[in-house]
C-alpha cells in the first residue's frame, strides 16, 4: 500500500472511529512524522536484524574484518553464519564472538548484565569438558579416525558417569 | 500418553476461572535453558540430539516429576498439530526435524519441550490472571531440573540461549487476553503502540505472525537481560489491569450507547452457532468471541465460559479430525465443525448440567 500523501510505501496504518464513521490513514514514516504521528517503535526482536546490519556497517574495516574471520573452535559456527541465521551454535559462542555480540545484546535488551536467578553449578561454557570432547569427536569422525572416535566416546561416557 | 484422550478433556488453563477470567484467558511463563555440554539444537547432530533427549528425560525422572513424555518423531502430522492447537508445543517443535519431544504435566498445566530452538523450553500455564502462582510453579520446576542438569550459564550474561534475544533470564512472561470491545472500536491499536513503547510484544492466539482470530491477544515481554524474573513479571503485570479496565470501559460504553444493537449481535452469533450446518474456522472464532463477551455482559445466561473456551480449541482443524476419527477436507471439516458445535452448545447449558 502506498502513502496517501506521497508515493512511498506506507508503514503507518491507523484507523479510528469518529462519530460512528471509520477513517483510515496510510502513511509513510516521514509523512507520519510530519503529521505529528510517530510510527510505532519496532519491537526489539524485529529490530535485531537491523541492529546487526547497523553495527556491521558502523564498524566496517576494523570490526568486520575481525568478525568475518571469527569462528567458534568448539562448534565450528562462524560469526557470519550467526549474522545470516540469527542463531548461535553453542554456549561458547558468547565468548568466541564477544566483540560482535555484546554490543548487539546491549542494544536489544538495553542492558548487558544478568540480574536474576542463577544455577548453583557453574562451569564457564568454554571450559565444559563435554563440549570440548564432543568437538574433538566430531572432528575425528570427519577425518574418519574411528579409533580416536571410539576413545572419545568412552571418555564422554565416563564424564557422564562421573556427574 | 494417549493423544486421542486430549479431544475429550481440556487443559487447566481453559477452565475459565481465576482472577479476571472474563478478560484474561490464561497466564503463562516460559523459561529457555540449554545444557552446557552440548552445541545448541540447530548445530547438534541427530546423535547429539538423541543424547540431549536422553539426558533431559533422565533428569525429569530423577527429579521425580510427574510428566508424560511424547517423542515427536513417532507422531503423525495430525497428532503434532493437535499438540500445537493445545498450546503444549510450539509450531517450531512440531515442524522441526530430528529427535525431539515434549513432557506434559497432568492437567496440561506444564510442558517441557526438548530440542526446540533451545534444549529445554519449560512452560507453565494457569487459567486467569495469576502470574505469581505460575512463577512459583515454574521456578520450582526449574530448580528441580537444575539439580539434575548442567545448564549453560555465564555470570555476566546469565542463562545462555541459541538466540541472543532470550539471553539472561531466558524468561518469556505472557498473558492471553480476550479484547473484543477494544478490537471492535479499533482502540486496540493505541494500546499496541503504547505496549511497543515499553518493549512488550503483542501476538495472536498461536504466536508470532498469526492473526488475532477470536480477538485473542498474547502480551509478553521482549527484554530478558538486566532485570530479574520478578521485575520482568511485574513490568508486565502492572499494565494488564489497565488494559482490562480499558476493555471493560469499552464494553460498558458499547452496551450503554447501543444496547439493543449489541444484544442483537451477541444473540445472532449464538443463534448461528446453535443452528449452522457448515461453518469455517474463522467465522467460528469470530462468533464465539461475541458469545463469550455476551456471557460476561449477562446477555447470555444459559452457557458456561468454560464451554466457550473449549470450543475455541476443539473446533481447530486437528482437534476436529481427531474427534471425528478421520482426516477431513476443508468442506467436510466445516460440516463436522458445525455439528460438533451444535452438540456442545446443547450439553453446555447450565440447566442440563448436573456434575462437573
Ligand atoms: Zn508519504
Ligand atoms: Zn560454538
TrEMBL record, chain A:
Top-level taxon of origin: Bacteria
Pfam families listed in its UniProt record: UVR
Ranges annotated as biased composition (Basic residues): 111-124
Region span, Disordered: 110-133
Domain UVR: 132-157
Biological process according to GO: stress response to cadmium ion; stress response to copper ion
Species of the source: Tautonia plasticadhaerens
UniProt name for this protein: UVR domain-containing protein
Family matches, as PANTHER family: PROTEIN-ARGININE KINASE ACTIVATOR PROTEIN (PTHR38430:SF1)
GO molecular function, one term: cobalt ion binding
UniProtKB/TrEMBL annotation, chain B:
UniProt KW Kinase keyword: yes
Protein origin, superkingdom: Bacteria
UniProt enzyme class: transferase
CDD domains xref list: bacterial_phosphagen_kinase (cd07930)
Keyword check for Kinase: yes
Positions bound to ATP: 26-30, 121, 172-176, 203-208
EC number: 2.7.14.1
Keywords: ATP-binding, Kinase, Nucleotide-binding, Transferase
Residue stretches making up the Phosphagen kinase C-terminal domain: 23-250
One GO BP: phosphocreatine biosynthetic process
Record field: catalytic activity: L-arginyl-[protein] + ATP = N(omega)-phospho-L-arginyl-[protein] + ADP + H(+)
GO terms under cellular component: extracellular space
Gene Ontology MF terms: ATP binding; creatine kinase activity; protein arginine kinase activity
Signal sequence residues: none
Reported function: Catalyzes the specific phosphorylation of arginine residues in proteins.
Family stated for the protein in its record: Belongs to the ATP:guanido phosphotransferase family.
Name used for this protein in its record: Protein-arginine kinase
Amino acid at each position: 500500500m502506498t502513502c496517501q500523501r506521497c508515493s512511498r510505501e506506507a508503514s503507518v496504518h491507523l484507523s479510528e472511529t469518529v462519530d460512528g464513521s471509520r477513517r483510515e490513514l496510510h502513511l509513510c514514516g516521514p509523512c507520519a512524522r510530519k503529521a505529528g504521528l510517530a510510527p510505532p517503535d519496532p519491537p526489539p526482536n524485529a529490530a535485531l536484524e537491523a541492529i546487526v546490519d547497523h553495527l556491521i556497517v558502523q564498524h566496517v574495516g576494523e570490526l568486520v574484518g575481525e568478525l568475518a574471520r571469527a569462528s567458534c573452535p568448539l562448534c565450528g559456527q562462524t560469526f557470519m553464519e550467526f549474522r545470516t541465521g540469527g542463531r548461535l551454535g553453542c554456549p561458547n559462542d558468547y565468548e568466541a564472538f564477544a566483540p560482535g555480540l555484546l554490543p548487539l545484546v546491549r542494544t536489544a535488551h538495553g542492558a548487558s548484565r544478568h540480574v536474576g536467578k542463577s544455577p548453583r553449578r557453574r562451569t564457564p561454557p568454554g571450559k565444559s569438558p563435554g563440549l570440548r570432547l564432543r568437538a574433538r569427536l566430531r572432528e575425528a569422525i570427519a577425518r574418519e579416525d574411528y579409533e580416536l572416535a571410539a576413545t572419545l566416546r568412552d571418555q564422554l561416557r565416563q564424564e557422564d558417569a562421573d556427574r | 500418553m494417549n493423544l486421542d484422550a486430549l479431544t475429550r478433556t481440556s487443559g487447566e488453563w481453559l477452565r475459565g476461572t481465576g482472577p479476571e477470567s472474563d478478560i484474561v484467558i490464561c497466564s503463562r511463563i516460559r523459561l529457555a535453558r540449554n545444557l552446557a555440554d552440548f552445541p545448541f539444537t540447530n548445530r547438534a547432530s541427530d546423535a547429539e540430539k538423541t543424547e540431549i533427549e536422553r539426558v533431559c528425560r533422565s533428569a525429569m525422572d530423577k527429579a521425580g516429576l510427574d510428566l508424560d513424555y511424547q517423542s515427536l518423531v513417532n507422531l503423525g502430522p495430525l497428532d503434532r498439530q493437535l499438540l500445537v492447537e493445545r498450546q503444549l508445543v510450539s509450531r517450531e517443535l512440531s515442524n522441526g526435524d530430528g529427535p525431539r519431544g515434549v513432557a506434559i504435566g497432568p492437567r496440561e498445566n506444564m510442558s517441557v519441550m526438548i530440542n526446540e530452538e533451545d534444549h529445554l523450553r519449560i512452560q507453565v500455564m494457569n487459567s486467569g490472571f495469576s502470574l505469581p502462582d505460575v512463577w512459583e510453579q515454574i521456578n520450582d520446576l526449574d530448580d528441580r531440573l537444575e539439580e539434575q542438569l548442567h545448564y549453560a550459564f555465564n555470570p555476566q550474561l546469565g542463562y545462555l540461549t541459541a538466540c541472543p534475544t532470550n539471553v539472561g533470564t531466558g524468561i518469556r512472561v505472557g498473558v492471553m487476553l480476550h479484547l473484543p470491545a477494544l478490537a471492535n472500536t479499533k482502540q486496540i491499536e493505541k494500546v499496541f503502540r503504547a505496549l511497543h513503547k515499553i518493549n512488550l510484544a503483542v501476538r495472536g492466539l498461536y504466536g508470532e505472525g498469526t492473526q488475532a482470530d477470536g480477538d485473542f491477544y498474547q502480551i509478553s515481554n521482549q527484554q530478558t537481560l538486566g532485570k530479574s524474573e520478578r521485575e520482568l513479571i511485574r513490568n508486565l503485570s502492572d499494565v494488564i489491569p489497565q488494559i482490562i479496565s480499558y476493555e471493560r470501559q469499552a464494553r460498558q460504553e458499547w452496551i450503554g450507547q447501543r444496547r439493543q444493537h449489541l444484544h442483537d449481535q451477541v444473540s445472532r452469533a449464538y443463534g448461528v452457532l446453535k443452528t449452522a450446518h457448515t461453518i469455517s474456522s474463522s467465522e467460528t472464532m469470530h462468533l464465539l468471541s461475541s458469545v463469550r463477551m455476551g456471557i460476561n455482559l449477562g446477555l447470555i445466561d444459559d452457557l458456561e465460559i468454560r464451554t466457550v473456551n473449549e470450543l475455541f480449541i476443539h473446533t481447530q482443524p486437528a482437534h476436529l479430525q481427531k474427534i471425528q476419527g478421520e482426516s477431513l477436507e476443508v468442506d467436510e471439516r466445516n460440516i463436522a465443525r458445525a455439528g460438533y458445535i451444535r452438540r456442545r452448545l446443547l450439553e453446555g447449558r447450565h440447566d442440563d448440567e448436573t456434575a462437573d
